Amino acid sequence: MMPKQEVVAMLLAGGQGSRLGVLTKNLAKPAVPYGGKYRIIDFPLSNCVNSGIESVGVLTQYQPLLLNEYIGSGQPWDLDSMNAGVRVLPPYQRSRKSDWYKGTANAIYQNINFIERYNPDYVVVLSGDHIYKMDYSKMVAFHKEHDAACTIAVIEVPMEEASRFGIMNTNEDGSIYQFDEKPKVPKSNKASMGIYVFTWSKLRKYLEEDEANPKSSNDFGKDVLPAMLNAGERMFAYPFQGYWKDVGTIESLWESNMDLLNPNVDLDLSEESWKIYSRNPVMPPHYVAKDAKVQNSLVAEGCNVYGEIDFAVLFAGVYIAPGAQVKDSIIMPGARVEENAIVQYAIVAENAVIGKGSVVGARPEDMENKDEWGVAVVGSGCVLAPGTTVPPKAMIDADTLAEEGSK
């Protein structure tokens, strides 16, 4: 038995992230690079340590290798103590009936023994694919103050967009009386953020009952939370104000990176009181050549910029050649944009090479049919031949190039 922890956080990081296409073909979604020097999982991990939560379980499943290596001992987030810290928790066979994580609730159920080691009073369940800053200790205090069995963080969304979310319908005191999963006619605009605080004794009971139900899909939103509500448990909505983005699609990932370049967006990564920690690639300072043009951009360490960039996010080790233009785009670690190539409204993944004179993406105002416009994506390790054109919305990976080359 470890020393008692009042709160344990369980971070669900096993999602396949299929809507991110080639970016998650060989990479878990929480490990996708973000914001010039981070990976998505840095945000919930940093929120935990900033909130005073010392014990964090990270539940991995899909393509976990890089994510496991990145988390390591937890040292970058100060989560490497002997009796607490961060632990990577892949599915394992503890009985002949054990299986992969079948759903979000089953993932927590399979790790009951891990949670019990700390004898917690409360368990915070988090998603590994959201960009936001949040003090979970305030949410736990709210949960205790309301003597709740479950507290769900909610954010107000525009009413016209509410049908895209799980909506919490609440009484005047904030207690939840109904869940609406993507309602056609929503009653409120309080959208679930996928962040939960549970009283552990209550949660364990419902996890065990859910696991015993052969008809259950073993999911929090579909099964466990409705069961708690139907049983009359005290459930409350915790209102969150601030920046929050689910970066589960190409468009939302691109938008969230571009938000960092917008002074009117409430997401300050330089805030001293709430730092977002990450694993440092240990590279020399970036270099911007005399003839280069750099505007409205983030440029990480190890970059060499000789061309023109505007509204660009460059990760560590990126090379922008003379004559190259990168606008409204994200260039991930180690990628190269060669001479006279044009990249606009695009995401270029790690270690990709955009060949000389290639054109990736297009500006929406230059499109005759606006419905055909979208963010273009070049996958990890792709090497585009000189003069290649990648149209808007296209997703190119190494396998696609190999197939085209064999024709």
TrEMBL record:
Gene3D superfamilies reported in the protein's UniProt record: Hexapeptide repeat proteins, Spore Coat Polysaccharide Biosynthesis Protein SpsA, Chain A
Catalytic activity: alpha-D-glucose 1-phosphate + ATP + H(+) = ADP-alpha-D-glucose + diphosphate
EC code(s) of this entry: 2.7.7.27
Pathway: Glycan biosynthesis; glycogen biosynthesis
Major enzyme class: transferase
GO MF annotation: an example: glucose-1-phosphate adenylyltransferase activity
Domain (Glucose-1-phosphate adenylyltransferase/Bifunctional protein GlmU-like C-terminal hexapeptide) ranges: 290-366
Role this protein plays: Involved in the biosynthesis of ADP-glucose, a building block required for the elongation reactions to produce glycogen. Catalyzes the reaction between ATP and alpha-D-glucose 1-phosphate (G1P) to produce pyrophosphate and ADP-Glc.
Name of this chain's protein: Glucose-1-phosphate adenylyltransferase
Originating species: Anaeromassilibacillus senegalensis
Lineage, opening ranks: Bacteria, Bacillati, Bacillota, Clostridia, Eubacteriales
